[in-house]
Amino acid sequence: MITLSRIWEALKQAQRHRSRASTDLDRRRSLRQPHAAPLLVYGSGADKQPFHEEAETINASEHGCQLALDTCVARGQRLFLTNTHNQAEQECRVIHASRRGRSKIRVGVAFTAPAPEFWRAS
Predict the structure, then answer these.
(1) Has residue 22 been placed in a domain?
(2) Per-residue model confidence as pLDDT tens digits over 1-34
């Protein structure tokens, strides 16, 4: 019985840890607003091969954005975005990437520094 209770406690602790980790992923420094902006995305794919792709944001804030990509990327990966409206460039890190069905991959990125000017029209 003692072994079973230790296993049970370990499972409960792992579940609590997982719950806290997913909450931390959803926490943002600023509220994202719906915002469609055309971007050029540069980086290396999950396979370490360089890529560039045209994309459009789904939502955005001064700290990052969510966009849809065809290229697979991984959490923590560094990307570079160019806003094609004003030619502003911004370095960012992938925070999450997920695909539902056969659709494009939804990618959340965080800028390395706040950049409200990145979204301004030229």
Answers:
(1) no
(2) 455 567 777 777 777 766 554 444 455 566 667 7
